[in-house]
User: Fold these one by one.
Assistant:
Number 1:
Amino acid sequence: SSADHFFYALNPDGSLQWRTATDFYSDSSSAAIAPDGTIHFGTVNGVVYALNPDGTVRWTSNLGSSAYVAAPAVAADGTVYIKQDEGVTRAFSSAGVEVWNYTIAGEGSYAGPAIGPDGTVYIPANDGAIHALTPAGSLVWKFQPQTASGADDVSGIYTSPSLDGDGNLYA
């Protein structure tokens, strides 16, 4: 959403299709589109929005007080994974019910989660690591980069991970 507190949809020719009022603006993140066309995004006031393709509000959630500054990821079943600046990643059902949350200490990076072909959720984190979670929110593994001297690099991962066709993760 923009600084004027609206989320916009434009036609291919650049004309306005619709606009929807939001509680505040989004900062540095894009929206994610679910398989059914639902549009998901968060705002700096800590509200998650799910809009129908026509711009009407399907649901909102206001859990926690921290900003959503990373783009969400949406699984094939419509589950929405979105990370707050305070380090909490939340999973919402397609109906907007929080299914689980996973907290990583520290202030958040602007990098959003990615979803693997098996449903694994990869979270770039404030602690410098990448956390791999099951679709149910349990930790599978954590990769902690090392500095040249062999110490844990806790400076943070600030890029959203990408996966190739073989399941290799890049961040």
Number 2:
Amino acid sequence: GPQAADPPSIISYADVESVTDRLLADHRVFELAGPAETVTLSDDGDAGDGQSKIDSTLGPPVVFTNPTSSLTIETSTSGGTGSDSIEVTGLDSEFDADLTIAADQMDSVRFTGEMNLESGDISVSAGAIQVDHSTLFAHTATFSADDRLSLVESQLHSTDDLTLTAGGTVV
């Protein structure tokens, strides 16, 4: 079953095919530090089991127990280079925490499918953000694109504030 770790805990791994992380955590941070990569954030394939998955073209998939407070994906804090692409296809149906995606000007973030953060907030910053045929539910939602923000046949539901900003175009 899930295990608790004393904070702060940094887990590193190398030369593995996949990782299953059942540690109980308030906050989870995934730092993408490599060259250009494609990352997918999704449910682990078993809806309602309290676990989600992150997969990268530069590393093994990681199935993790949903955090209780926040999940953060960062592309620029660890010296990552190149244009990263983050695809969010959903999270486990039991996910109830904040989601932050902090990407840099060269990176893109794309949402597909339905995602309900329950009482959690969503904050996304990137060069380009696309919400494509999606339905997103959150307490507060902030999307900030350095260049282009695109909403394609999508619905954004916020019980508090919804903020959309773009340095270029909003479509």
Number 3:
Amino acid sequence: LGLSIPVSCPESYAVKWLNDNKESLSLKLNRIRSALPQKKPFQTGTNRLSYRSDFCIVKSPIKKVTGYIRSGNYIIHIPDPADPAIHSDEISSIVKEFLRLELNEILEAKLKNFAEKFKFSYKSYRVSSARTRWGSCSGRNTLSFSCYLARLPEEIIDYVILHELCHTVHH
């Protein structure tokens, strides 16, 4: 958490304001934290990846967490016996790559379709792991999308794609 202050504001005023409002700020912060969705731990079995795909976590006699795609199915193997919570960071990393692949497939079809249908043109697109925005459009009409966009409902994905395509006309 940070506090931005105008250049003309003396730091002593900001510190005094923080101290005077510490209790109310703490209450507001706790209220915001309690309203945020709680991160669910990964579980063995089927888990939702996107509006159109799932991924499966399977316990296997292996030593290292691995992920792969077989016949269009996203699969993660974890060592047995093990609790998926122990391997949360490794699973998250593989899921992020699955999301990137999934969103690339979605964008490949939707971008071309929307661009042709609504007469937009874009230079290229890329998928990142941005956490603060769903998409962006550079001044050179390169579109960028967060891989986490794949987790949203299809109509929201469509909206974000069209929104970014509009920027290719109106920067």
Number 4:
Amino acid sequence: FSIYSEKGIGTTFTIVVPFTRAILKAQFIKVAGELIAIPIENIEHIYFLNQNMIEYIDRSMFYRVEGNLVPIIQLDQYLKLTDSNKDYLEINGHSKIAILCKKDEYDFAIFVADDILQQMDVIVKPFKSSYSNTRDILGSTITTDGTVCLILDVLNIMTYQTNENRITQYN
């Protein structure tokens, strides 16, 4: 904060406000009834979940994409929005959505959502809470209808899953 004043001319007040916002293009999805966003830059492809493409290895689920097995992250369970003991791969008889997300050139994962909504540019406000130390949330945004929406940090989620279940290569 600074003040500059010159007699007979006027006074200038300068306030430096830290830039804590960013704009990104986000894909809105529904997971267990909750509105969530994923940065478009992390999305490689979006599919209808085909149960015939799912394989189990050592109690872990993988999705076959172009001959490669890619680990599945069921967002409803990962975010603790549903019972983690059950695999909900259909919702009301309809197939869920499989979102192929990329961490880097070699590491991919399938994020499973209930529904796919619109894409839009959003203003991101960093999400920090003294009540939670989660690193799965990149930030939050407010939609045009006033709904607060959390934006997932896809890279951190995939990094965490790497420790749980090695993310395989996808070429």
